[in-house]
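INFO  loader      accepted 1 record
INFO  loader      residues=245
INFO  predictor   begin
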Amino acid sequence: MRTAMDRRKFLKASGILLVAGTGVQGFRLTADSHNETETRAAPSGKRWGMGIDLSKCEPECDACMKACRRENNTAFFGDERWDVHRIRKVFVKRAHARNEEEKPVVLMCNHCDKPPCAAVCPVKATYKRGDGIVIVDPHRCMGCRYCMVACPYNARFFNYKENPERLNEKQPKRSHGVAESCDFCAHLVDAGKRPACVDACETGAMIFGDLNDPSSEVSRFVAASGVKRIREDLGCEPGVYYFGL
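INFO  predictor   done
INFO  writer      dumping tokens
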């Protein structure tokens, strides 16, 4: 998925979104937006996070996106009306910079420490695990799409159509009528493996690991100068960090 946008608009995009048909005319993040976030048990002592080095990200490479679709049976029809993107790539540049090349930016669920998507879910289908991974339970999701309205990163998609393909027989086929987003391939992480997108990235632009371990590669990446998170001012405490943003 290639989407171009102005860098200033991208970095200053508000936390107010409108999704047609939800009945919710915008959701503004406030100090109280995170109070009802539910955290459920998971392997203790870890806080999974990701680092993305945009200087190593090749503009035309879509290996991470293809790997995600294969691993998670993500619905993809080649039609923007129905496609689901757990991970996607947009291209940004500064306003009025005519001679500046567009910069690829990989986007996904930011696995916030205070996820607003979980705070607004009326049936607690969205929740944060103890290790920081934000999950959507498709069996509880009732398709209200409040989480899509609340997400300041536009990282949630809705399954309008049932995916006809099941590329990974070990994972369930995604049903229609529920919301979906990146879950860091939690089933792989729980098995001691890395997310599919990270394994597929041949340039080493994507780094995954335990943010609570100061010796981990991702912690060293975060500690380096020039690393940023998108819209840190919202107070969501995202778990995805970028270099070269």
